[in-house]
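Subgroup meeting minutes
Present: P.N., E.W., G.H.
Scribe: E.W.

1. P.N. recapped why we're keeping a running log of single-chain structure predictions: easier to compare across weeks, and new members can see raw inputs and outputs side by side.
2. G.H. added today's entry (194 aa).
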Amino acid sequence: MDWRRLIDLLKGHVVYLQTHNFPDPDALAAAFGMQVFLNANGITSTICYAGNVEKNSTKRMMEEFGIKAVNIDQLPHMAKEDYIVTIDAQKYNSNITDFVGREVACIDHHPTLTPCAYEYSDIRICGACCSIVASYFIDSDTTMDANTATALLYGLKMDTDSFNRGVTDFDISMFAYLHKIADNQKITTMYNNN
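Output recorded in log:
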């Protein structure tokens, strides 16, 4: 997909990055990576979800990388004209709550069960949503900091079970890119603590 179309769509709007209801490391890291990417292109966004962050390892990951994700209960001012980008989830799936705002875009790595007419969609079947988000930095030649690379690499490793589940050549190429930037010692420590 052309990252410029996403930027043009979101500019001038209140933007929310919505994960599935019980976000896992891939969903949170992908949303965080997209937040960093959008910010580099002049767009402020808020990561949000319904449900809970259930696992202690996921909560620890959020603390470690400085990921701020807000439960919908803490967003009473979301309005119907606000823009929502679903991350690691698609509208109409059972694992995502329909929020007040408009789902204008979707970035996901799962097959589509119920089609939705997004204004922008980037749905690629691969091992992790983090891989798709990493590609936005490459395609746009946007500099990625070590913290963002480490978060994305961690999400990629977790969702593919260390490249033992659903991994594609695309994931491997994104791993190679992220590995050069990331704090790999931090990933090893966090992964071993799971």
